[in-house]
Amino acid sequence: MTQRPARRTRSGARHLALCLAHWAGGHTISNEELLRRIVKQRAEAHQDALEEHRRLVLKAHKRATKLQRIAEEDGGLTPAAKAELKAAVKEAQRHTAALRALGEFEVPDLDPGQVRHRRRRIAAARCAVLAVPAAGITAASVTGAWWTGPAAAALGTLGAWARGPQPFDLTVRPVPADLIAQTPMVLPPATGPAVQAGEAAPGLLVPPVPSVAPAVSPTAGGAPAGPAGDEHLVLALSKALSACRVIPRGRQVTLLEQPEITAERWTAVVRLPDDTGATVDDVVAARKSLGGELGLDRARLHVEQVPGTDDKTLRISGFTSDPFAAPVLCTADMLADVDVWEQGIPVAFDAFGRLLYLRLKDVSILLGGSSRSGKGAALRLIIAGCLLDPRVRLHLADGKHPGQHRWKGLTKSYIWDPDKRAKQLAKRLEALVTEMGTRADRLAGLGVESLAERPALVGTEGLTLEVVVIDEVSAFTLDPKHGKKITQHLIALSARGLAFGIVLVLATQLSTSGVLDRLVTANLIWRWCMYATGADESNTILGKGMAGRGYSAHLLDPEQRGTGLLLSDGRVSTVRSLWLDGPDMEAVQNRVRALRDPAQQPSTHTQPIPTQASASPTEADWAVVEQWLTPPAAPAPAGDDPKTLALELIRQAGPEGIKRAAVADALGASPTTVGGWLKTWAEQGVIEALGSPPHTRYAATDGRQ
Hints:
There is one protein chain. This protein has 705 residues and is an alpha/beta fold. The chain has helices at 5-24, 31-74, 79-102, 112-143, 148-163, 177-182, 231-243, 280-285, 287-294, 375-387, 421-446, 474-477, 483-496, 518-521, 535-542, 582-596, 622-628, 642-653, 660-667, 671-684, 686-689, 697-701; strands at residues 254-255, 260-261, 265-271, 301-305, 313-319, 345-350, 355-358, 365-368, 392-398, 413-415, 465-471, 502-508, 526-530, 563-568, 571-577. It has 22 helices and 15 strands. Helix 1 crosses helix 5 and helix 18 (642-653) packs across helix 19 (660-667). The radius of gyration is 37 Å and the shape is extended. The protein starts with a helix and ends with a helix.
């Protein structure tokens, strides 16, 4: 049954569009043809270079021979002729050395990106050809031939109707026979989405793997019994490592597992030969040269020690493209139901696409990098994850306000004022040091040394996780007045705080090694260094001598913000932070508001807090008020206890409130002491229970924290 004309026309138009897109994208040309054309072009360039050097050698020899004949006939040469003869001889030697260096042409290990670049050039040219008719029709319509546009549309519609539902055969043209004859040294690349062991993947820069590779069966000692792995891969890696002077020439690495080869990468687990002194660190230090020997740049060569093995066993991987080129988004769902203690916060991904989680269990972190290197993205994830766990109380000190201003009002404390921030942070850290002593006594009474021994205690009364995030720590530690005190508190908290649930997250821009004391950095478990301007700056985060071992953040791509070197558990790995922004950031902030809004929080007091509607200003529940006194004390007659007198003055003031100075004068106490009482009572709800506004005059007395 025939189709209706409109449906037939749409079907035909779709097939015509697919055919044009297939042609315009250059997909009619195979990878093998492009590869052969590139090799042919390089072979011709190599031959042209040889011929040019031969011509110049012959020219120099002719000139030198002529001058020598003149010298024999005339009995010598003038000084100018002698200099010319010397130059001709030197020129002949130089071009002869160039000929020797060029040698015979060898098929290069081409980067797959070169094939893609050649295809893009073809696609650009074909798209330009397709654009010419459209431009001509538009120009004709503008100049007065109005009928050209409708005529072209009518012809296109007629052609689409004529084509109908019959699709085009979108094929790839065969490689020309003359091109194959001119490039007999090029092997056709394997096809298919994935390559099994024993086959060569397209564009992979290792020798083709034979169709049958012997399996590896470890012996009791852990060494392979018999021939290990594929001979071609072993030879390629051994030759590259020898060229980089990691292992002596003539020695070979041992392939411990069958290589994993896909269209995106190849991976081999090898062991360096014994009696050579070579270790994994030597391979890492020579990674740039090793990549050049294998036809890869630094970003596409990954070297790491195999966990649980000795320093001679490593995993080498080569990628067809930079694994960190594209950022990975952190969705709001990834941060749902975050458990910062056991599960961790998703903060980054590695070269193999595996997510990295930051667990606050026995982990504090030092985050460094130059300006605009991506530290803010990592801090954003850490802060969001902590705020989504109700067991965490987050203290945020922003040294480059408004860098983290979006979290203001959602954290336990937010310190940012440039005129007061150093003093405020010093007081906050001092309070946490005091809290650390209280927690130590409590855990000692329970018979445990740290929260890690009894995870059930995490988040219980008095044992919440206190996370201190200091963004741009140099703004605080280098403060001329309070910097030394802040450093002393950081030393104490970094040394003992983790055992009692007090975690430090410090970020700095690597301006100088004096930003953080060595006693602080020595006790920070995670060290994450993003792009740095030099090896010395990288060492301030990763540690002294790390750049000499091949781990330096100045070798990273500065355009890939968030990419850095992470030192954890004694191992260094390259990772890139996840990216949280846009709708996901808004969704996360809404969740945090719902969790952290005091109006939606259940009361943590043992007794319900009376409100102004349930208790009049003159009829406060003194039994409840007495339970809230800090520290608890038995009721005392007015005049014996200054706190009781202060509460009586507040109750009598009622909704009008009373100033801190007036209370201090009535009691004969220090205004600072009274301000501390007022702050504590405002947080506990005592002020509101007595009928006074809790966040007017009393909050103003301690606004500097």
